[in-house]
């Protein structure tokens, strides 16, 4: 793929949406602009669930509190359906054109939430992720690491909890343990970021990691005289 897929993961309220917007700003209007190729589709922001028209409907089904409890397997299959549509109809075409895609959640969320959280079989989840992605993996995944209680407190300040947020704390702690296990198992792909600081501090840490990655991905740009890979908050 010509483009790059940069994924943000973490527990509820870890700050993914906030940091994706900050990274997009840095890459389009800050010092990061000099480190990515000009032209093409540029920097694109998306999310799972809900990155496509079908996905928007699936997201509603997944997050609203419905009339009957959703079975764990139905939940798993709906997240997989959302991903299959997102990968084929949105991510692959954009990556083929050279886009830098910033994606809020991807396959690791299914391993952490449906695997570690719900207790569904890891092999089954790996198979479904393989079907849904047809082999597409992230170029880097930034895990925003934050204590569950801090993240949930942030989301509670926003108001009514969605269906996933309503799960008990033990569930969210298992999800957290899942993310940390994934980061330990895939150090080349996943980078843990301390998400407990101020928004600016977290953004700074992300810019440092991304400067390193972008210089590796696009070395010709990094060594241009005009390039100024200084973190910008
Ligand atoms: N899911 C998803 C699965 O179970 N399986 C899957 O395969 C997939 C793909 C998605 C749900 O679906 C589940 C996971 C989720 O439960 P969602 O609404 O997209 O639902 O949920 P989240 O991704 O968790 O989104 P949130 O908006 O809840 O969290 P974010 O995006 O991590 O956090 P953000 O940036 O919105 O910030 C939350 C609040 O904290 C403040 C912000 O201003 C905001 O109010 N904040 C900070 N406050 C203090 N210090 C900082 N550093 C802060 N950064 C942000």
Structure description:
By secondary structure, the chain is α/β, with parallel strands linked by helices. It has one domain: Rossmann fold. Helices cover 53% and strands 12% of the residues. The protein contains nine helices and five strands, in the order βαβααβααβααβαα. A five-stranded parallel sheet has the order 2-3-1-4-5, sandwiched between helices. Helix 1 packs across helix 8, helix 2 (53-63) runs antiparallel to helix 3 (72-96) and helix 4 (107-117) crosses helix 7 (169-185). Residues 10, 12-18, 48-49, 63, 79, 104-105, 109-110, 113-114, 154-155, 158, 164, 198-199, 202 line the site of P1-(5'-adenosyl)P5-(5'-thymidyl)pentaphosphate.
Largest sheet: 5 strands, parallel
Main-sheet strand order equals 2-3-1-4-5
Residues in helices, as a percent range: 40-55%
- Count of separate DSSP helical elements: 9
| Overall morphology | globular
Instruction: Provide the low-confidence segments as ranges.
Output: none
Report how far the terminal alpha carbons are from each other: 30 Å
- Output mean pLDDT: 94
The CATH architecture assignment turns out to be 3-Layer(aba) Sandwich
* Domain unit count: 1
């Amino acid at each position: 793929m010509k483009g790059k897929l940069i994924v943000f993961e973490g527990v509820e309220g870890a700050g993914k949406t906030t940091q994706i917007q900050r990274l997009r700003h840095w890459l389009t209007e800050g010092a990061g602009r000099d480190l990515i190729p000009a032209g093409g589709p540029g920097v694109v922001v998306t999310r799972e669930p809900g990155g496509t028209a079908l996905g928007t409907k699936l997201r509603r089904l997944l997050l609203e509190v419905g009339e009957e409890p959703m079975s764990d397997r139905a939940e798993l299959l709906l997240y997989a359906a959302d991903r299959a549509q997102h990968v084929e109809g949105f991510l692959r075409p954009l990556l083929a054109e050279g886009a830098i895609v910033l994606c809020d959640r991807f396959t690791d969320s299914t391993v952490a939430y449906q695997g570690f959280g719900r207790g569904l079989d890891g092999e089954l989840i790996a198979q479904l992720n393989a079907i849904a992605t047809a082999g597409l993996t992230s170029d880097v995944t930034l895990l925003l690491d934050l204590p569950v209680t801090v993240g949930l407190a942030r989301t509670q300040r926003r108001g009514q909890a969605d269906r996933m947020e309503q799960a008990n704390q033990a569930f969210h702690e298992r999800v957290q343990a899942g993310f940390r296990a994934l980061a330990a198992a895939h150090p080349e792909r996943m980078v843990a970021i301390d998400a407990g600081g101020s928004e600016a501090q977290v953004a700074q840490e992300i810019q440092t990691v991304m400067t390193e990655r972008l210089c590796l991905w696009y070395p010709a740009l990094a060594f241009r005289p005009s390039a100024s890979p200084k973190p910008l908050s």
